[in-house]
Amino acid sequence: MDWARILAYITGTVEQELLLRNEYLAAENRILKAQFKTPLRLTDAERVTLAEIAYRLGRKALEDVANVAKPDTILGWYRRLVARKFDVSKSRQYPGRPRIDGEIEQLVVRMAKENTDWGYDRIVGAMANLGYTLSDQTVGNILQRHGILPAPERKRTTTWADFIRTHMAVLAGTDFFSVEVLTLRGLATYYVLFFIHLESRKVEIAGITPHPNERWMKQIARNVTMDGWGFLDNCRYLIHDRDTKYCESFRNIIESGDVKTLPLPARSPNLNAFAERWVKSVKDDCLSKLILFGETSLRRALREYLVHYHAERNHQGKSNVLLFPTARQTVGHVDGPVDCKERLGGLLKYYHREAA
Predict the structure, then answer these.
(1) How far apart are the first and last CA of the chain?
(2) pLDDT tens for each residue of 51-101
(3) In which domain, by residue range, is 4 found?
């Protein structure tokens, strides 16, 4: 038996079949590619598979069969695959000390902001109390990165937030808001001037008028600074915006009652946030849900809302409790029937238990 001839026959048959298969697959790929209106989007794993086979196949043969991408593109994938194998940038060791943990850094920044007279050594000691060992140079670098000045410079600067926080007990705010009221002559705009004590959140409606002129403002200033019962009697500072209604004569009368007026910077309503928040509350809870007929209707609505605000409304900014509960209110009791007290026709509701 001529084994060489048989082997050559078998080999030729196999090669012929492989050539036919490759020709079929190449034709099929060209047809499928022509059917797709958008180019194929391959994953990284699919690119790696094609790149490995393409490298073994060679550029010349690749030009005959590659349809998904150009031969140069596929070989470029292979070069990137090789480069990735020898990329050690992720495990590279950099010289110098490791970076301070983010939580520790934020804690240092917090201590420096909350304690303007603490120097580097004081902060190092406070961090040591919490189990963190830092050097004063490390603390200095952290504060420098966050734009925080050293202690001597920090002590000479006071932010509005710090000032308000440290003077809450003697600080009051004032502001206007307008309300549209139906009258016999149509809609009329009324201006409501109120004062709010920042620590207790107590509010007083100082006046309601369609024309807040200088004479009216001077009378309001006399009322709120009267000895014994004026709203600003125990206050030392009054913050207000730069509305022209706060005229010079108004400020002079306020300051004659030992209350210093503090005009806010222009376009900064957030610095009088307690007053702005009260305006939102009274409008959202009450005024925006009513059609007001005349000044009397407006005064009644504000009077009822003030009672509700002070004694029947829980305040999230004050531990979610009532500001000034009356002696008859049994807050926190679980015995007795539940009753609902309504104001303004049920617009304002207060649920409570009847006192035994």
Answers:
(1) 120
(2) 777 777 677 766 666 666 676 776 776 677 777 766 666 666 656 566 778
(3) 1-32
Examine the domain organization and report whether 293 and 175 are in the same domain.
yes
Asked whether residue 174 falls in the same domain as residue 308, the answer is yes
Amino acid identity at 110: R
* Residues 6 or more apart in contact with residue 303 via CB below 8 angstroms: 205
DSSP secondary structure code for residue 3 in this structure:
H
Answer for the pair 93, 55: CB distance below 8 angstroms, yes or no: no
**CATH number of the domain residue 192 falls in:** 3.30.420.10
User: Which tokens belong to 6?
Assistant: 């048989």
State how far the Cα of 101 lies from the Cα of 43, in Å rounded to an integer. 36
Dihedral sign computed on CA atoms, order 73, 79, 85, 91 = negative
Decide if 92 is inside a domain. Answer: no
93 located within any domain: no
Segment 322-344, tens digit of pLDDT: 888 876 766 666 677 888 889 99
Q: Are 267 and 316 in the same domain? A: yes
Place of tokens 């004032």: 174
3-state secondary structure of 110: helix
How many domains does the chain contain in total? 4
Kindly report, residue by residue over 218-240, the tens digit of the pLDDT: 999 999 999 888 999 889 999 99
Residues 240 and 189 in one domain: yes
Distance CA 312, CA 303 (A): 13
Task: With beta carbons less than 8 A apart as the criterion, state whether 240 and 263 touch.
Answer: yes
Please give the structure tokens belonging to residue 105: 């850094």
**Are residues 149 and 240 both part of a single domain?**
no
Neighbour tally for 2: CB within 10 Å = 8
Is 123 domain-assigned?
yes
**Quick check: 223 and 241 in contact, CB under 8 A?**
no
Residue 94 in domain = no
Separation CA 12–CA 31 (nearest Å): 29
